[in-house]
């Protein structure tokens, strides 16, 4: 264990033993730790940004929660030195360090959690700005907007498909979330997301492009007719197979009936009579 602690002491500052965690505002987070040595003198959870302790554990099994975090710390039922920090706000974003002090080695970083608190993203709205129609094509410009950002994109459609100028578009908003607009089949999707939440709005281009409406109706009609033909073909085949099986079973049953009910002498006499008739 001492070798493990020495490795942590030298490697954590160099390599960054930090596990990134994103937490929704108002939710709780588990500050988890393993391998706390049995011969420790103190184990402390520290909020690095403010250099303040959350809770201190002592060798006799007792612990002390800092007055700043009274009512916000729960102890984990599964692990002795892991704690739950409740009701996180944006100001709680930062690195939380689990530090152990022993009589032989001194202060050692056992674990760090890099917590980022995010609020749920704001709703988005997808609006049609302009529509330009010709006899064979349609150009539609839409704007995907949220509280602090927006993206405008143009889509070109003919009677069979649509394409987005420049492909999928996205940008990082002022609140560090992602706003994106993209095309799925003939549906434009406007999405606003971060690591803890997501919201979207969508519009079918065929509602504003008459060319696509005509194509969609024609395509749907063909699909229905094709489906009905497949339905009738399947039932015809099924009925034919059933009739064949029924006919074979009837023939088999008749043969078995005559073989089981006619006396052998009757069979011989019947065969002789048939021969004389010939």
TrEMBL record:
* Compartmental location: Membrane
Domain Immunoglobulin V-set, residue spans: 20-99
Signal peptide start-end: 1-19
Q: Give the matching SUPFAM superfamilies.
A: Immunoglobulin
Q: List the Pfam families.
A: V-set
Record keywords = Glycoprotein, Membrane, Signal
**Taxonomy, superkingdom:** Eukaryota
CC terms in the record's Gene Ontology section: membrane
Give the principal location in a single coarse category. Answer: membrane
Is Chaperone among the key words of this record?
no
Extract the PANTHER family matched here. Answer: IMMUNOGLOBULIN V-SET DOMAIN-CONTAINING PROTEIN, SIGNALING LYMPHOCYTIC ACTIVATION MOLECULE
What protein name is recorded for this chain? Answer: Immunoglobulin V-set domain-containing protein
Q: Which species expresses this protein natively?
A: Salarias fasciatus (Jewelled blenny)
């Amino acid at each position: 264990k001492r070798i493990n602690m020495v490795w942590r002491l030298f490697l954590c500052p160099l390599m960054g033993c930090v596990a990134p965690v994103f937490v929704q505002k108002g939710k709780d987070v588990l500050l988890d730790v393993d391998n706390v040595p049995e011969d420790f003198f103190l184990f402390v959870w520290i909020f690095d940004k403010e250099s303040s302790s959350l809770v201190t554990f002592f060798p006799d099994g007792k612990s002390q929660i800092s007055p700043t975090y009274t009512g916000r710390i729960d102890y984990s039922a599964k692990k002795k030195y892991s704690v739950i920090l409740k009701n996180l706000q944006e100001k709680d974003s930062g690195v939380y360090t689990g530090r152990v002090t022993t009589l032989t080695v001194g202060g050692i970083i056992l674990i760090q959690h890099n917590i980022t608190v995010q609020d749920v993203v704001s709703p988005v709205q997808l609006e049609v700005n302009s529509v330009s129609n010709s006899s064979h094509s349609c150009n539609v410009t839409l704007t995907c907007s949220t509280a602090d950002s927006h993206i405008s994109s143009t889509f070109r459609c003919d009677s069979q498909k649509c394409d987005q100028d420049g492909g999928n578009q996205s940008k990082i908003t002022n609140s560090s979330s992602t706003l994106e607009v993209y095309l799925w089949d003939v549906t434009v999707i406007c999405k606003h997301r971060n690591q803890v939440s997501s919201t979207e709005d969508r519009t079918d281009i065929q509602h504003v492009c008459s060319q696509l409406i005509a194509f969609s109706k024609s395509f749907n009609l063909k699909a229905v007719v094709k489906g009905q033909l497949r339905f009738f073909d399947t039932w015809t085949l099924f009925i034919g197979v059933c009739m064949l099986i029924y006919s074979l079973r009837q023939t088999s049953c008749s043969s078995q009936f005559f073989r089981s009910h006619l006396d052998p002498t009757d069979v011989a006499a019947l065969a002789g009579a048939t021969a004389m008739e010939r």
